[in-house]
Amino acid sequence: MLRAAVVAVLIVSTSAVVRWEERTLKCDVDDCQLAIRNDTFKPAACFLNADARHSCDISCEGADRDSVISKSPTTNRRCIRFYTYNTERSSGGWQMWRQGACAKETIVLQVHCGFPIVEDNH
């Protein structure tokens, strides 16, 4: 009985209501451009950090989760999620990083940012 109650609490606490928004980062060797919710592409705020990672802000301030949904071309073998590209949370929001051979590729990465929806129970 106690085990069932603990499982129920875990399921409820991890299934919060979330509003998902798409971000598309289009990169080549020299720079990246960001589109928010299928809007026009604009220059992305990118930098090279101390770990030789090319990181770009994906404008997900306030999001509490993300989901990388695709890369294009899908046949690109130099860009492998978790190894040569991924997202990471930073103090100011979320970054998409690329490193190694992937940082020298022309690639399009799509991400969904999850923004929590606060429900007022009053």
From TrEMBL:
Residues 1-16 form the signal peptide. This is DUF7808 domain-containing protein. InterPro entries: DUF7808. Keywords: Signal. It comes from Ancylostoma ceylanicum. Residues 35-117 form the DUF7808 domain.
